[in-house]
Amino acid sequence: MTTASQSYRRKDFDPVWCPGCGYYGVLHSVEEALGIIGILPEQTVVVSGIGCSGRLSHYLNTYSLHGTHGRALPIATGVKTARPDLTTIVVGGEGDVLGIGGGHLPHAARKNVDLTLLLLDNNTYGMTKGQSSPTTPWGCVTKTSPYGSAEDALDVLPILIAYDVSFVARTASTRREEMAGIIAEAIKHPGFSVVHILSPCVTFPVVGWKDVRDKLHDLPMDHNPRDKRAAMEIAYTNSTIYTGVVYCIEKPILSSRLEHLNESALKHYSAGFSGGRKPSITRLMERYM
Question: pTM value?
Fold first, then answer.
């Protein structure tokens, strides 16, 4: 860990995850990414949901909010809308983001909120002792599927690309250096960015680490992340797990869209104010009070 990144770690208590958990690597990479960009801790907000991944926001020396189950994205949307000057990072597991909170994902994408979601995927509900999650493969034995899961696993990258998330990347918690660089790139991206981080659970293993490691490969050198069709082809490749920035486009972010709407509203209603009074959102609201 670099000297710059050390200032992002809280010193009053240490992380509490299972020995060997990949989330330690994610925490270090988040610190490294913030250090790479040079964002001050007091200019950063980390919002997390529940579960093992939800703890990550506690360990950073930034503003943090540990939200309720599945609600990290709408909370972070409110934070970014009220304070667009703050760098906002969301941390959630696949159960939190794709399960109970799955309905919030497409709306964050269509709004193109300028925040970064770190989607930590361990293929199980680890904190509650190993139940099936939205990404548990069909047939896997878990606490809630003792004879094998009867459900198909959600394919994460195709979902994100189909929602037209403006920045989609994938990495694994074992790839520390790559992960830090990707997270930094995601934070700098103007718009909604999602980094899918593979990190199989070591205590309640559903997908083995070796199975993941053997499939990990860098994206082909000629991959064009602005080509949605090419991104989908990469996303649907099952024999190889490609890591890197899979899809990246530019489109207006929510704050700029809201600013444009405010300006349009003020211009439209300016004729209704007499005596040289300038219209404002507050004065417009007074009409309805």
Answer: 0.90
